[in-house]
Write a structure and sequence with these properties.
Elements: H1 4-7, H2 12-15, H3 32-51, H4 84-106, H5 108-113, H6 118-122, H7 131-136, H8 138-163, E1 171-181, E2 184-193, E3 198-206, E4 209-214, E5 217-222, E6 224-227, E7 234-237, E8 243-249, E9 252-257, E10 262-268, E11 271-278, E12 283-296, E13 299-312, H9 316-323
Helix pairs in contact: 4-8
Amino acid sequence: MQSDLVEGYGPANQTSQAPASQGTEPAKEKDTFERVGDGFSSLSHTVRGWFGKAEEKKSDRPAWGPDNLPPKPKFPSPEPGEGPEVRERNRQTLLKFGREYRDYCAAFKEVYANCKSIEQLRNCDPAEVGKALQQGLPDLAAYMQSARSELYDLKVKRGYELLGESPPGTLMVTLKLALKAGDVEIEGSASADTAGKSSSGVAVSAQNAKAGIKDGKGFISTNAAAEHRGTGAAISQDEEGRWQGGGKVAGVGVSVDSDGMVKVGVGMGGMGASANYNPSTAEYGMSIGGSRKVELAGAEIEATAEGELRFKGISKEDVMRALQGWMVKPNSEDIAD
């Protein structure tokens, strides 16, 4: 027997159909000019994405956030009466409620973006679809619940952003360029990943001193370095205090750094390739690079270039977070109970 909450809407199979936009009426085929217009529109959005964010419509309302959650849609009361016309009006009312709930869930994308801590993020979730609605109108409830489920991946991604980490499944690309003349070296790098994180920097170093700009911030540092001439083993420290050590064994270079990254590489002539793995973060990848020396104005200049591709797998820490439900809100409120 259905709950009083949904009883007035009649049988579930008459009230839980998909929204009108998902009906069975075939879509009208676009003509050539319409398809070309769609193509230019898509290209325009892509180009704007390369050079900056598209201009967003301004709203007078305060931004949604952990201290200003979007209002929950109210479950509508059925229109009393019998007959197909009344049932159809009630069906449309329910479908409108379903769309309002999906819009309500979509607003939580802005809420998550404005969370500043893991605790804030964990405690922000849309109200769940009520059990009475799930039992009385299961198809409509499933349509609404799917919008809530789609938010979980976004919430987890935002959680990793707040931790300063890349989520599992992230692909990272890094390009490095360098020019060296005597003791002076100019380095440049740029990186981006599929999670939307990017970084860039340029630096000039002379002997053990280095100065430059990284992600828009300037730095000056003194690099500590030591080398054992007999074995070729060396250790160095960068401007952020991270160290790296390594050497060559039978022509194969092996290095390890303070983050736990182990790197193995081989070179031939002016080309080289390497593979790396970090067991603590489950990141692994490969790189390929090359160098060339040229004479310019009587000075020898060495130019090097390197490209690196890395993939973020699932680490032990990622598994523990998932098992502990680190993004699950402790208590939830039903929207229709």
